[in-house]
Amino acid sequence: MKVTVDQTEKLLRGSQPFSQLGFNMMLTRLRKQYSRDPSQSVVQNSMGEINQFLEKFVAIMGADYAIITKL
Question: CB neighbours of 15 closer than 8 A, spacing ≥ 6?
Fold first, then answer.
């Protein structure tokens, strides 16, 4: 699964809880970056990082995929 730019912006603006601590920690850091600089380049970089995380940890992200796909 790959997140889109639209889904990335929703993740960065939202406050959805996720079951994986590592994913929550990454989102917290990315949300801080986005709040300081909401430019398209920050969104693109965040999307790349989120997609890398999801690819690497696909086996443990099952429950959280359902939340992300509804965005």
Answer: none
One-letter-per-residue 3-state SS of 42-70: HHHHHHHHHHHHHHHCHHHCHHHHHHHHC
pLDDT at 40 over 90: yes
Kindly state the DSSP code that residue 2 receives in the 8-state scheme: -
The whole-model pTM stands at 0.91
Structure tokens at 4: 């889109």
Over range 44-60, report the average pLDDT.
94
Q: Are 60 and 20 in contact (CB under 8 A)?
A: yes
Q: Is 54 exposed, middle or buried (0-12, 13-18, 19+ CB in 10 A)?
A: middle
Rounded CA gap, 37 and 32, in Å? 9
Mean pLDDT score across all residues of the chain: 93
